């Protein structure tokens, strides 16, 4: 068993670091997600981020080449996964879908059919029981994860009905306590901010990662930028997004009467999950 951890991709592109390579990703040509404020600074850092993804892709290719050269291709399960979304606002350090929805690729020739895709929802806690299952090892009692080996074998098209997630923000660089819990199903994403009166801070807001200062400057006369800056640092107790209609999570439906039943259902799911985990929800120094 081997873990190869690469720091790429990572936010914070600078010309001094050699990013981005304009021959690959010219800042003025990159495609930005719709939840991000479009400024020259943002484009520069995003282009550098895409450049680093390409470097990582080359690195993964070299690793796969070494496995192939050793004659171990059919004996080796390769799993590629990231730990969080990109290091920009509304991505890393958040429970928005862009922060939680990460790549997951599995290669095992002769067992996992190449080129297939699945919309089955899994959690990173499912990796351990899945690898044990694929290796024919005994299962371990008490794990939160569920093996998705049947999905990899093509025996099932679905896995989890819902995926819960959490973020605390404690001990994050330049970040104070800001506990967040969430759950999403195939369509809906419910987010609970347990300290909604607090101001959300981290390296994005305090160091300016992701071109944040340019967002703040743009907010002076741009309503979209102003709304984005305000929502990133000041959030309501509950948020609800229809990912089918609004994958960028720009339209919060938590206060929409038409979504009340969905809100109540997912609120109950988070309540039950927190109770199951013994999760008090608030960090010790802020708990009543």
3D structure, described in words:
The protein has helices at 40-69, 97-100, 127-135, 149-152, 203-207, 212-218, 223-233, 260-277, and strands at residues 78-81, 104-107, 163-167, 180-184, 188-193, 238-242. It is of the alpha+beta class and 288 residues long. It is globular, with a radius of gyration of 21 Å.
Concise synopsis of the structure shown:
With 288 residues, this protein is an alpha+beta fold.
Q: Provide the residue-averaged pLDDT.
A: 92
Main sheet: strand order: 3-4-5-6
Oligomer: single chain
Strand content: 5-15%
* Approximate shape: globular
Counting DSSP E segments of at least 2 residues, the number of strands comes to: 6
Q: Which sequence of SSEs, written as H and E, runs from N to C?
A: HEHEHHEEEHHHEH
Number of helices: 8
Report low-confidence residues grouped into runs of 5 or more: none
- Which class do the helix and strand fractions yield? alpha+beta
Proportion of residues in helical segments: 25-40%
Terminus-to-terminus distance: 44 Å
Task: Provide the gyration radius in Å.
Answer: 21 Å
Largest sheet: 4 strands, antiparallel
């Amino acid at each position: 068993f081997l873990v190869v951890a690469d720091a790429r991709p990572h936010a914070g592109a600078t010309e001094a670091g050699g990013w981005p390579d304009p021959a690959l990703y010219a800042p003025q040509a990159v495609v930005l997600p719709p939840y991000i404020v479009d400024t020259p600074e943002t484009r520069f850092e995003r282009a550098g981020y895409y450049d680093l993804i390409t470097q990582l892709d080359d690195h993964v290719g070299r690793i796969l080449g070494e496995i192939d050269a050793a004659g171990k291709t059919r004996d080796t399960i390769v799993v590629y996964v990231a730990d969080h979304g990109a290091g920009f606002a509304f991505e890393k350090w958040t429970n928005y879908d862009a922060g939680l929805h990460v790549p997951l690729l599995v290669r095992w020739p002769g067992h996992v059919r190449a080129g297939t895709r699945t919309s089955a929802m899994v959690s990173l806690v499912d990796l351990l029981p899945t690898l044990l299952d694929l290796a024919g090892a005994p299962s371990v009692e008490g794990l939160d994860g569920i093996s998705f080996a049947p999905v990899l074998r093509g025996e099932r098209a679905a896995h989890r009905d819902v995926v819960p997630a959490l973020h605390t923000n404690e001990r994050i660089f330049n970040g104070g306590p800001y506990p967040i819990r969430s759950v999403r199903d195939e369509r809906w994403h419910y987010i609970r901010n347990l300290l909604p009166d607090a101001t959300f801070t981290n390296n994005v807001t305090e160091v300016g990662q992701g071109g944040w200062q340019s967002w703040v400057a743009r907010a002076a006369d741009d309503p979209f930028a102003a709304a984005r800056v305000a929502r990133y640092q000041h959030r309501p107790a509950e948020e609800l997004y229809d990912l089918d209609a609004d994958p960028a999570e720009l339209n919060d439906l938590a206060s929409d009467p038409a979504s009340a039943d969905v809100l109540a259902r997912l609120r109950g799911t988070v309540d039950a999950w927190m109770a199951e985990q013994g999760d008090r929800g608030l960090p010790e120094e802020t708990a009543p």
